[in-house]
Each structure stands twice: as structure tokens, then as C-alpha cells.
Amino acid sequence: MVQFVEFIFWFSLAAMLYVYSGYPILLAVISGFFRRKQPQPGYAPFLSILIAAYNEESGIRRKLEQTLALDYPADKLEIIVLSDGSTDRTDEIVRSFADPRVQLLHVSGRKGKTNAQNEGVKIARGEVLIFSDATTIYHPQALLHLASNYADPKVGAASGRYQYFDPEGKSPTGLGTVAFWNYENAIKMFQSRIRTISGCCGCIYSVRRDAYTPLAPEVISDLVQPLHVIRKGYRVVFEDRALAYEETTQSTSEEFSMRVRVVTRGIRGLLSVSELLLPWKFGWVSFQLWSHKALRWLVPFFLILFLASNLFLWRRPFYQWTLAAQLIFYGSTLLSLLFPLQRVWKPLGIPLYFCTLNAAAFCSVIEVLRGKKYVVWETVRP
Known about the structure:
Elements: H1 2-31, E1 47-53, H2 60-68, E2 77-84, H3 90-95, E3 102-107, H4 113-123, E4 128-133, E5 137-138, H5 142-148, E6 155-165, H6 174-194, E7 204-208, H7 221-231, E8 235-247, H8 252-272, H9 283-297, H10 299-312, H11 317-338, H12 349-370
Parallel strand pairs: 1-2, 1-4, 2-3, 6-8
Antiparallel strand pairs: 4-7, 5-8, 6-7
Helix pairs in contact: 1-6, 1-9, 1-10, 6-12, 8-12, 11-12
């Protein structure tokens, strides 16, 4: 019995170490054998920027003004605001823009972001489609860098880079969010250098019009759309010069709710293209999906096994140290949840973010097993 519990302890520890460090290190080593030249700005296809919005009256004007000011040929750009049943002044503000490049598509019935994007693509004229959120601000040259990748006919989608910021430094999970997405961006950079990334950044990604696939409303488009692009024989690349600035959530509950929605939609999305998980058919892509997605969503279950087995083995000296480390880690998380300790020392927010991510993943797996679907989203920023 003791040997079996020890196996569970070391297996769960090894699985977590592989997910968070082994896999990225392996990617970094493999990517060192590949050299891909970054495309230079100059190729400028017609772009359609599709901005998903629901009750964004407080920020939609700023978003449109900033988008119109981006460095890209004016005659090769159109902006379509996808208003998913907005009930505030969002539609009115969009219609007030005199610039002919701006148009409104009001999608009635509140069917969610993915559905709104499907509807927007039907009227879009662009050779390349850019998907954005209403709260995201782009670097002035983001479009030039994204577009340059499409000079290569083998590229079917290109993702930009998230750059999160905590404007007032008060978010309990702010530092964790910034650190996590810097880590995610590094993984995408390695994946892209080797062959293809397995998912895009939701607020700044693009798809070649001919490679777009209409998706079910309950799946998350920035993961599933690139997978359909890969199935069609294209590469999906990471363009780290195309920056998108996004504010972190301002409470743990907001972050948790958002992550549950995102992961639940991600799991459903991956199951909708489950054949990509078969390594004998889609070797490299399958390896990435198992390592970067499926196993990561299972980490909360490894954490439970790790703690439970450690509790069983606690009488042995070595396991007393590992148990103490776990209890300190979870204790600091609980304290950060109850008191804003991260304002005193920001790194204390990292355990809270880690536990928030994994608690959300745990709930998401349960939600999928229960048949729960997340289609619509709520605006959390005033």
C-alpha cells in the first residue's frame, strides 16, 4: 500500500513538473535547432478587423479611435463592430462615426462572441480577418506585423502577443497574470519557431479568409479556429511584435469566473476536434495539445493526488518537508485571498493566481462532465 501511495506521489509530482517546466524546456531545446526569419513589414493585404462587443459604451469610442489611428494603409482596412445584443449606447456610438471604414453589425438574440464572429465574417471583405476585443489596445504597428506573415502562402493564421498590465497595482492576481502570460508567450514563440502554435491570443489574432471555419457558439474561437486552420494544411504562427495591451481583472472572483468560462469553452472546443489528439495521425500537433492543454487542465487533479498521498506519507522525514511546503503554499494563498498581502509584496499574489487557475480548471472539467455550456459573456469593467 505504501509503495502504491509513493507511486501516486511521484507520478503526480512528475506530471506537474512536466506540464510547467519540462515541456517548455523541451520546446526551448528543440527550437534551438530551427531558425525562421521574421517577415518584414511591407506586405499589406486588405484587412477586416472584427471587434466583439457587448455593452461597451464606456470604451468603444476609444477603441475605434485607436484602431483608426493604427499604422496601416487606410484604403486597405475596414472595421466591423460585432454588437452581440448590446442594450446600452454601444450601437449608437459606433453609428456616430463618420469614417466609412467603420460599420456596425448588431447581432440580435445574444448568442455569444463566437457566433458574432461567424456573422461578422459573412459580411467582411478582407483577405485577412483580425479578431479583437473592445477593451484591447493595439501597438501602433501591430497590424503591419500581423499582415506581413501572410506573404507566406503556407501561413493560415497569425497570433499577436498579450501584454497585460495592472494600472493601479491593486489586482490580487495582477502580477500572476502578467507572469503567466509572459510564460505563455514564450511557449508560443518556441512552438512557432519549430512548426506551428496550437492556439492564439483571443484579443489579437488573425486568420486568412479562405482558411476560416464557422464554429459552434459554445467553443472558444482563439483555440479552435487555429486548430481548423492546421487541419487544412496551414501553419499558425506567433508574431511577438504585434502587441495587444489588456488590463488585468481587478478581483479574484472576476478572474476565477473568467477562467472557468474560458477553460470550459476550451475543453469543449478541443473535444470538437478530438482527432487532433491522436498522435499517430497528428504527431507534433497532438503532442502540443496533450502537453500544453489537456494535461494542464488535469493539473488540479494531480494537485489533489499530490496532497492526499503526501498526507498519507507524512510520518516519513522527507515527506514531512514536502507536506510543510504545500501547507505553507496553500496557507499563503488563503491569506492573500482574505487580505491584500500582494500590496505589501507583489510576489505573494502568484500563489493566489496559480490556485485560481487550477480551481477554475477543476470546476471547468466538472462543468463539461455536467453538460454545462458557456456561450455569452458579461462585461466586467465599468
